[in-house]
Amino acid sequence: GSTGGAKKRAPLVDEAGLSLIRERMEAYDSAREQVIKRSRDGQKAAKQAIYCLHRNDVSKAAAQLSLCEQVIAELLPAVTSRKGLRQGSFSGVCEEYAEAKLFAIWLSERRVLSLAELTPCNAAEYIGGLCDLTGEIGRFAVKAGTARDSKTVAECLETDLAIASVLQQLPLPGKTLKKLGPLAQSTAKLESMLYELSLLEWGRTLPSEVVAPDAVASTGGGGGDDAGAEK
């Protein structure tokens, strides 16, 4: 006799499971777009902070740094819960923030912040910011050299040499390793500038080419005068 109706066939594809995957992918894409958009705001604020620091507008620089910190804090939960979101835009804004914060503290205290003092930057972002800091210090040294401030130029050179010495001991990735060449050129320019200033202080002059700011500061991450165009 009949055993009843035919057994219902299971679907060939797990449609419910695929629907969940689609929802997760859409949520990830939405979070990624938000991270990219807000990271631009944070990066712009960090660049503006550097721009203001070069013009000794400390209060405005502090406000821009605070804005950048707010953006990073806002995005941190999303990039923490979705690991793939940290690389790219968010990592870029952290590196730019590290550069700006390092420069601000160096200007006011003549010291270089540690990684532990730059939460939530990771090691790679900190090293990137540290490399670019040397370019900002180079720009600052040119201004001091124009004013014949040999003491400040010496402080700039001392800092850049100390950073270069540390970086040379690290197994740096290719992108960061490429910055060591311009850093060496920058320190050589500062040494030459300091030597010429010492001769001037003794009432002697030494014929030489004018040291252009761009030549000294080519290591930096673009936080100098050009940043002003992003107002």
UniProtKB/TrEMBL annotation:
Q: Which SUPFAM superfamilies does the UniProt entry name for this protein? A: Translin
Q: Which residues are in coiled coils?
A: none
GO molecular function annotations of the record? sequence-specific DNA binding
InterPro entries reported for this sequence: Translin_fam (IPR002848), Translin_sf (IPR036081)
**Which Pfam families does the record associate with it?**
Translin (PF01997)
Protein name, entry field: Translin
- Organism of origin is Octactis speculum
